[in-house]
Amino acid sequence: MKALQYHSKEKPLILDDLPDPPTSSDRILYEVLASALNHRDVWICQGLYPGIQPKVTLGSDGVVKHNGQHYMINPGLDWGSDPHLPSDSYTILGMPADGTFAEKIALSQEQLFQTPGHLSVFEAAALPLAGLTAYRLLFIRCQLQASDRVCVTGIGGGVALTALQFAVATGCEVWVTSSSINKIKKAVTLGAAGGQLYTEDQWHKKLLKDSGGFDVIIDSAAGDGFSHLIAMANKGARIGIYGGSKGNISNLSPQRIFWKHLTIFGSSMGNASDFRNMVDFVDQNRIVPVVDSIFKLSDFETAFQRMRMGEQFGKIVFDHKK
To answer: Do residues 138 and 256 share a domain?
Structure first.
């Protein structure tokens, strides 16, 4: 079978011919129909991820076919018995375990969840990692309510867009930030009330004036700009962090945090119940994940370059049947 494997930082990606994955009493071989790219895959190739090993098939998102039905893969492995926190052995498909960028994959049936009927195979492939991360951060960590006004930073990536869609479906007023006015305009077509370019001077003051402040803020950047999120937060606001692409947080005033009674949550992925509830939420609200583009697996270099350049609006998907 063909599989896209990480080899080394010097030559990270090779589309290899490999034997079919081994099976066992609890691991069945499935045909992969589609998969989706995540920043995680790019960071692995740049050596910016813990526990990197050579000759591992990348990819966390995917849809497989079994008995004529399509199933999404929950990419989380070994969450453990505590629903609140992952175990020390928790990992994600695609490193260190072989992932979805392959023609076949061996999985436990417990990792499979039937695809909602309104989704195409490519839309379904775009959902798992982004959907699980957004769902747990919004509803479990930040306890999102319909009355909340929400800000989602860095709109365009999979988790940010899914968080926007989930919050809009809940009935929230949602605002976004981006470095691209076109991405903000596209977000408005998905239900956002408006947005602000974070590349402009005093952008947070403009967004605060336009919106009236936020009860929930979803962020993946951190860095120096995080202090502006504190400034835009209403009293009692909840701030959810699922990434740190801009690095360490500086210039943060603790007085603003305790005086406003703010709560800052970190979150990453989720447990099997979160995944099931996320899929049900998508099904009930007929949410359609945003697909930016679809590539053949053999065109992986172009797909990875598009993500590295930050050009995408939505998920970059691989069609394994081309």
So the answer is: yes
The burial of 236, by beta-carbon neighbours within 10 Å (0-12 exposed, 13-18 middle, 19 or more buried), is given as exposed
What's the token pair of residue 61? 């998102």
Higher pLDDT, residue 225 or 187: 187
Q: How many CB atoms are closer than 10 A to CB 231?
A: 14
137/216 same-domain check: yes
Q: What is the dihedral of CA 45, 49, 54, 58, to 10 degrees?
A: -60
Q: Name every residue whose Cβ is closer than 8 Å to that of residue 259 and which is 6 or more positions away in sequence.
A: none
Is residue 116 within 8 Å of residue 124, measured between CB atoms?
yes
| Whether pTM exceeds 0.85 | yes
* Domain coverage including residue 294: 2-127+289-319
Query: Do 199 and 164 sit in the same domain of this protein?
Result: yes
Domain assignment of residue 275, yes or no: no
